[in-house]
Every structure is written in structure tokens, then in C-alpha cells.
Amino acid sequence: MMKINSKLAITGLMLSTLSGLPTMSFADNHSKTPSRPLQLEAVNLHQPIPGVYSAGQLTQSDLTKLKHSDVKLIINLRPTSEANTYDESSFSNAIGIEYLNIPIASAADINFANADKLQQALEQAKGDVVVHCASGNRVGALFALNAFKQGKTIEQSVAFGKTAGLTRLEPVVKQVLQDSNK
I need a labelling partner for 33 at 20 to 30 A (CA). Which of 50, 59, 69, 81 fits? Predict the structure, then answer.
């Protein structure tokens, strides 16, 4: 069986999702079959690409449900300075789900360096992934930046970001993308 390069698989998925073409397998380390829909309390739960979910803040109940799913990695974009009612990292690790924090504290953190960190984590994941912040807005912003890096127009990138939760940060994303074109 031929192995699929994770970076190429994710790029192909994002580009095919944006263009309306059929999607290809995420990568050998992700689910081969379509992931079961997640039933979580988190707001703005989306699945912008197979095997990758975006959402607002996860509850302890959500994490317990994820223990019995294909999700192997939680990526939290909230900085530690944002209040949370539980220690998400410890709780995730205790139930066997890997946890990564990429803190996006302000509009200044919506940049290609952080989008690259997210992309790298998605490429290295050994199963399905949930990427979240408080509302999903920051998740969508970084997804939009990565779509742009993969050759999509500003409009296409923003549209893809919206499928992952982009809302109020749309003007920031557009500015970052326009500035990168100069």
C-alpha cells in the first residue's frame, strides 16, 4: 500500500474542498472511513475537512465523549490567560487524547507563523483532530491563512475560513492576506 504524504494530503483536501472537487484521503494516520459526526456541547462545531473538526470551547463532557471517538488530538488556540473551568490539558491527557496549545491571544497573533504551527500539528496528528478556541473564530482565521498559502484567492480563503468558524476576525484575516500580497 502506498503511503500518502500528509502535507500533500492536507493541501489536496483543502484545495479540493474549496474548489468543489472530490476530496482525497486525509492521510494514512487519519481515519480511512468518514468520521462519525460528533455530538458535542461546544458551540460552532464544524467539520471543514474530513478528520478535522473546529469548535468553540470544549467542556469536560465533550472531552469524555471524544474519548470514544476517532479524535486523537485536541488543539486549543486559547491562551492560558483566558479563564477555563477545568485544566483541559491534564483532563485530555488523562483520558488518552493528546493536547496541544497554540495561544492566539489577540489579532496580532493571526499570522502565518501561527497558521504554520497549526498546519504542522494537523500533518503530524495520528487520528482525527478537534481545533478550538472560545467560539471557533480564531480557528477559522488560521484555516483561512493556510488556504491562502495553498494558492487560493483572498475571497476563497475567507470563504474556507468561514466553514471553520471565522466571523468577527474576517477584517483582520483580509488585512493579513492583502498585506502578504504586497
Answer: 59
